[in-house]
């Protein structure tokens, strides 16, 4: 879908640091996290909540009170009259939330506040009534673990999808390990000079508690992925090519952005803007999830009247190393030119905010280069992909 007059003010896309699974944020309701991070982000940018016409809340793991999520978040931020849709599309939630906000702005509404938040830690166990079962015993499912383990349409889990694509490509374990080590080196570049790159968009977490505030001011649980260390790891499953290094890890976090018209974006930033040019969604064959970012990206580029040759920077959501190898093979992009400051393969995957963080990193990468066209693309649960094309203009 193409957008004619939709933009993010420069500096107005942000993310919290991501916490490791069962780490610092493991017992924090993701709505509480969203209130803390979003209020800090807006205050730091001197954005008045009274200027928004809507809020879009992206989430994928139920939390207490999520039934009232979007209006509750808005009210707790101080905008009691603000409401809007809640979006949940697994790993594509970030693009889907921006897609919803961009559509609203393009239709003539005022600025939209986009928030993506999730806590993968301590996902709920659901109990489904089954009166006809023996003794009326309920059917139970674990929202996070069961979803990771099996796609009900394909009958296989995400690792199986990654392995299927790797096998069809003829990818070797060495290629996957090399890509993983490269992604670690790129992430480490974002840590240089006291995390100078990450500080351009990251918002520290500070949540009041009885004794002392809960704080998180840097990514948590990140393990170096050196080539020798990766090579010594056993496969993630018998006969697999991927290891626990060449796939992402669950995480907790929050991210967001301000979406409005180009003129209003320029007023808010006081400088340049980030034009949202287009979005794209695509679906591929069963259990071929790592392939989906390619047609999603090509769809978004086509909607914007562009092709891969027009793109100056690329970030991806790549839960498995094979994702980026497949993308590079199909599009001609060089793996070293993608994710130059890191990606979800390294910093983790809270689902709802993952894409938003990568888009914030894409924006800052282009800002450092003086502007240009950027592409974010990534897979979602099962066999779906989502992409966003932006243009940073100083």
Structure description:
This protein has 394 residues and is of the alpha+beta class. It has a single domain (7-121, 156-393), classed as Peroxisomal Thiolase, Chain A, domain 1, CATH 3.40.47. 34% of the residues lie in helices and 21% in strands. The strands form four sheets. Strands 2, 3, 4, 5, 6 and 11 form a six-stranded mixed β-sheet that branches. The chain has a five-stranded mixed β-sheet with strand order 1-12-15-14-13. The longest helix has 17 residues, at 173-189.
Helix tally equals: 13
CATH superfamily: Thiolase/Chalcone synthase
List segments where confidence is low: pLDDT < 50 over at least 5 consecutive residues.
Answer: none
Name of the level-1 CATH class: Alpha Beta
**Mind telling me which CATH architecture this is?**
3-Layer(aba) Sandwich
- Name the helix and strand elements from N-terminus to C-terminus, one letter apiece: EEEHEHEHEEEHHHHEEHEHEHEHHHEE
The first-to-last residue Cα distance is 24 Å
On the 0-100 scale, what is the average pLDDT?
96
Helix content: 25-40%
Number of strands: 15
Strand content: 15-25%
Overall form: globular
Fill in the CATH topology: Peroxisomal Thiolase, Chain A, domain 1
The domain tally reads 1
Report the sheet with the most strands, covering strand number, pairing sense and barrel closure.
6 strands, mixed
Computed Rg: 20 Å
Structural class: alpha+beta
In short:
The protein has 394 residues and is an alpha+beta fold. It has one domain: Thiolase/Chalcone synthase (Peroxisomal Thiolase, Chain A, domain 1).
Question: What keyword list fits this structure?
Answer:
Peroxisomal Thiolase, Chain A, domain 1, globular, 394 residues, alpha+beta, six-stranded mixed β-sheet, 34% helix
């Amino acid at each position: 879908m193409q957008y004619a007059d939709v933009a993010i003010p420069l500096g107005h896309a942000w993310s919290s640091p991501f916490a490791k699974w069962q780490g610092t944020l493991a017992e924090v309701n993701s709505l509480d996290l969203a209130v803390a991070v979003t209020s800090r982000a807006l205050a730091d940018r001197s954005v008045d909540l009274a200027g928004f016409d809507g809020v879009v809340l992206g989430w994928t793991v139920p939390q207490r009170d999520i039934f009232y999520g979007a209006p509750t978040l808005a009210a707790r931020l101080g905008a009691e009259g603000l409401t809007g849709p809640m979006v949940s599309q697994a790993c594509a939630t970030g693009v889907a939330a921006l897609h919803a906000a961009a559509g609203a702005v393009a239709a003539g509404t005022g600025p939209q506040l986009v928030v993506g938040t999730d806590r993968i830690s301590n996902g709920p166990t659901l109990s489904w009534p089954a009166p006809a079962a023996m003794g009326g015993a309920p059917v139970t499912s674990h929202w996070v673990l069961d979803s990771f383990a099996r796609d009900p349409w394909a009958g296989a889990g995400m690792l199986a999808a990654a392995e299927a694509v790797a096998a069809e490509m003829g990818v070797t374990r060495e290629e996957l390990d090399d890509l993983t080590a490269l992604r670690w080196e790129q992430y480490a570049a974002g840590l240089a000079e006291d995390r100078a790159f990450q500080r351009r968009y990251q918002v520290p977490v500070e949540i009041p508690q009885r004794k002392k505030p809960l704080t998180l001011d840097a990514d948590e649980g990140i393990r170096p992925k050196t080539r020798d260390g990766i090579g010594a790891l056993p496969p993630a499953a018998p006969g697999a090519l991927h290891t626990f290094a060449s796939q992402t890890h669950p995480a907790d976090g929050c991210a967001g952005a301000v979406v409005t018209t180009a003129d209003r974006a320029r007023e808010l930033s006081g400088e340049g803007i980030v034009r949202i040019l287009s979005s794209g969604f695509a679906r591929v064959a069963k259990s071929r999830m790592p392939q989906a970012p390619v047609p999603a990206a090509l769809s978004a580029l086509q909607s914007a009247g562009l092709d891969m040759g027009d793109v100056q920077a690329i970030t991806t959501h790549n839960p498995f190393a094979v994702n980026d190898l497949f993308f590079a093979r199909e599009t001609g992009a060089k793996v070293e030119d993608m994710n130059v400051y890191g990606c979800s393969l390294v910093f983790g995957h809270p689902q709802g905010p993952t894409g938003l963080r990568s888009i914030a990193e894409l924006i800052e990468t282009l800002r450092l280069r003086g502007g240009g066209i950027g592409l974010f693309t990534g897979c979602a649960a099962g066999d779906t992909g989502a992409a966003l094309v932006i243009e940073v203009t100083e």
